[in-house]
Design brief:
Layout lengths: L4 H6 L4 H8 L6 H10 L3 H11 L2 H22 L5 H14 L3 H11 L9 H18 L2 H14 L2 H17 L1
Helix pairs in contact: 3-4, 3-10, 4-9, 4-10, 5-6, 5-8, 5-9, 5-10, 6-7, 6-8, 7-8, 8-9
């Protein structure tokens, strides 16, 4: 997708990205995201990811991101299976968006809408964001989930999350 100043202004305007974009010549969305990665501007790249993705792509991106760091939560709370249950419900819902699957997804994710405090809780909060992205079709929630996962994971998880986002956009 071609990115222009006009396109950026039509989005939920990101001034930081607009300023960055204004000082370079690239207009291809994927190449811009790769440039942002090279400059360690993941938050801005993440914003652009979800702006360029379809509903199914941004929810899949968020789910994949959470799956890279869910072990952090499970290490602290080994008996709490709700995050995995919520992720399974979201996957089922995006593949088959029936009312029944929507209700199951909402119920599975309800427990994670608490204020985050610590890495494990950040992952739990990210699960809540994935559910919101899926059920309410809120792209920024998918971005928040991916960003929380990105910040919680190590360098390997970050690379996997980023590369998966690129793969999704290239498949578009």
């Amino acid at each position: 997708m071609k990115i222009t100043k006009r396109w950026i202004k039509k989005q939920d305007f990101n001034e930081e990205f607009f300023n960055w974009f204004s000082h370079q010549k690239e207009t291809n969305g994927i190449n811009i995201i790769k440039s942002l990665r090279d400059e360690n501007e993941f938050e801005t790249a993440n914003w652009l990811f979800v702006k360029l993705m379809t509903y199914k792509q941004y929810v899949s991106y968020a789910v994949f991101s959470i799956e890279q760091v869910i072990g952090i939560y499970e290490k602290k709370y080994p008996n709490d299976k709700r995050p995995r249950k919520a992720i399974r419900a979201v996957k089922k819902f995006i593949d088959n968006p029936t009312k029944e699957n929507k209700d199951s997804t909402t119920a599975a994710g309800r427990y994670y809408a608490y204020a985050a405090g610590g890495v494990a809780e950040e992952v739990g909060y990210a699960v809540s964001c994935v559910v919101t992205a899926a059920v309410r079709r809120v792209a920024p929630a998918a971005g928040v989930a991916a960003l929380k996962a990105y910040k919680s994971g190590g360098q390997e998880a970050r690379a996997k999350i980023f590369n998966y986002g690129i793969k999704l956009l290239e498949a578009k």
